[in-house]
Amino acid sequence: FILGMQARAHLNVFLHELYLEGKVRNLSVGGCLVYVSLEDSMALTVNQRLPGVTLEFPNGDTFTAEGRIRHMRPFGSHDYAAIGIEFINMTATMTETLFHYVSESEFEAAFRSGLQDNASRVKSRLFIADAKEKKLQHKEEREQIQNTQKTPLLRGIQEIAHQLQVILMFIKSRDMLPEESLYECVDSLLYMINQDQKVVKYALAFLHNEPEWVRHAVQVASQLAMILISRDPHNSQTREAVAGALLHTMGKPLLISEKLPSLKMHMSPSQTEILKGHVQALDHKLSSLGWAPSPTCRDIILNANERLDGSGYPDGKTADVLSEQVRLISVIKIINKLTHERNSQQPRQPLDAYRWVNDLPSLYEKSLLVEYIQHFGLYPIGSLAKFSNGFLAWIMDVDAKGMPCKVNVIKNLSFKDTSIDTVLENNDFTQIGRLEGTVNPSDYDIHMVNHA
Predict the structure, then answer these.
(1) 179-195 vs 237-247: helix axis angle to the nearest 10?
(2) pLDDT by residue (tens digit) across 199-208?
(3) What would the pLDDT profile of 339-358 be if each residue is shown by its tens digit?
(4) CA count, 13 A, side-chain hemisphere, 48
(5) For 413, which DSSP code?
(6) Quick one: CA dihedral 353, 215, 47, 281, positive or negative?
(7) pLDDT tens across 386-445, in order?
(8) Backbone torsion region of residue 422, taken as left when φ is above 0, otherwise alpha when ψ lies between -120 and 50, otherwise beta
């Protein structure tokens, strides 16, 4: 499909359970090439049978058949995977219908490229968008414009998130772990943190379109790196600890199956128990690939979910056998979980999260909680703050006392239908009033626009 030609694909992955959306990029009588988001591709594997593959053309015409995945690969630096699908169990009528759609697509491609005499026939009706398709296209155009407005550091953080999903695809579809790509992510993250830690903190808050396991891994790895660098900027084990933190949630998408069709769904108790097997799933997969992580990296992968009192998983280890770096990452992880929406639970504000962790000294080490608070404060960079004159603003920087000193004002609650995009320093805070505290963006219908 060339020069703006497009059709949509609806893939039924598990019968009556999971449906994925994609875009058709090539079509023949044998099959099609479909682009799906990297996040959605977690549920797909080579040779997997698809109960239903529905192609929807811009004019509303549809074609449905069974399919089998023949190949998968990441598509450049975009957040898409290219999925090659073979049509199977085709009847004669279905083949005839498909041949018609292929012929129309080939004519449209020739028409748009100038190889077809424009006067001989009008363009194919298949590719004349109806009202529904036009609305979808306009929405996608607006999203593309937003994506071009990102700062270099935000793009860098999002590229790391992208590469983690590519690494997962290589693990699943090619039975290999691209070690070089993993350590490029680690080194890029460490470089950005050393360049401008505050800007990285702000950029991390805008990881919102990524899968939950990716967002959590990148944010936790970044905060772990910041604390370890502040302790000893030249410790060679920091690199290995960050590699482990980036990998430690990758076992979750490896568990996707008919019993656990998606990581985005509201999970039943039995599905939650399945998900707790993610540590062993990743460990077994890495072993089968013949990849041996360093001792520090392996320590993080295996033990990041353990607790001081032995109530963690997978092995119920206690404080006496847990390394200091594991005890630190467990504090970082629980604060990250508490301050983000998970399984339909509303996020806590940072101060509430700190109190919750502080009240459980048998699970989390208090001295490490204090160290975390000293680094990230009561008003963390990237939080949404509410001011007394009714303004909402993203915190972009804090002073030596941890108080916001630079914010991006995005809304005046007196005019809820209008948006603002104004950066203020603390000298100008009289315009927005005194700081009342941090708030949950979803309570005010605030969506994370990429101001970073």
Answers:
(1) 110
(2) 999 999 988 8
(3) 998 877 889 999 999 999 99
(4) 24
(5) T
(6) negative
(7) 999 999 999 999 999 999 999 999 999 998 888 889 999 999 999 999 999 999 998 888
(8) beta
**Alpha-helix residue ranges (DSSP H) falling in 148-211:** 152-173, 179-195, 197-204
3-state helix, strand, coil in the chain (%, to 5): 45, 20, 35
Write out the two tokens for 136: 């979808």
User: Angle 177-181-182 (CA atoms, 0-180°, nearest 5)?
Assistant: 70
CA-based nearest residue to 189, from 176, 207, 172: 207
Output the six-digit token pair for 124.
């194919």
Q: State the pTM of this model.
A: 0.88
15-50: per-residue pLDDT in tens? 777 899 999 999 999 999 999 998 899 999 999 999
Tokens of 27: 């079509």
Collapsing DSSP to helix, strand or coil, 375 comes out as: helix
Longest Cα separation, the chain: 81
Question: Distance between CA atoms of 217 and 333, rounded to whole angstroms?
Answer: 9
**Alpha carbon 71 to chain centroid, angstroms:** 23
Say if CB 145 and CB 37 are below 8 A apart: no
Give first-to-last CA distance, the chain, whole Å.
35
Residue 243: phi and psi, rounded to 5, are -60, -45
C-alpha 169/C-alpha 189 separation (Å) is 21
Is residue 404 helix, strand or coil? strand
Helices (H), 292-444: 295-303, 324-338, 350-358, 366-376
Give kind and range of the element (H or E) at residue 270.
Answer: helix 269-275
Which pLDDT score is estimated for 149? 54
Distance CA 43, CA 11 (A): 11
372: Cβ–Cβ under 8 A, 6 or more apart, which residues? 223, 227, 331, 332, 335
Instruction: Specify the 3-state DSSP secondary structure of 403.
Output: coil
435-439/384-387 β-pairing: antiparallel
Cis amide leading into 314 (omega within 30): yes
Residue ranges of the alpha helices (H) in 39-121? 92-113
User: How many CB atoms lie under 10 A from the CB of residue 438?
Assistant: 20
The pair of three-digit structure tokens given for residue 53, joined into one six-digit string: 């593959």
CA distance 285 to 361: 34
Tokens of 390: 């009714």
Under a CB-based contact definition with an 8 Å cutoff, are residues 411 and 419 in contact? yes
Collapsing DSSP to helix, strand or coil, 87 comes out as strand
